[in-house]
Amino acid sequence: MKDPRDIIIAPHISERSMIDMESNNFYTFKVDLRANKTEIKKAVEEIFDVKVDKVNTMRVPGKKRRMGYHQGRTPEWKKAKVKLVDGDVIEIFEGM
Question: pTM, whole model, 2 decimals?
């Protein structure tokens, strides 16, 4: 079993994620690329002591970047939108 803190990397804060959090009870996290929905659900429930209703995941492709003649890509990453059961909240987001 993986450590839950290896699966959930960081909260993803954006204008869209804040709107989803206030209106639909969705919380957005940056997660490990290899994590699946059930692992993400268990990790969020264990770390934040809440009940998860559903999980949506999406892979965000890396963008092309140039530095003079040299070019490369930023790393690809995975985003998870977690919907909590009504009445549950994650406290770290409440101060924002």
Answer: 0.87
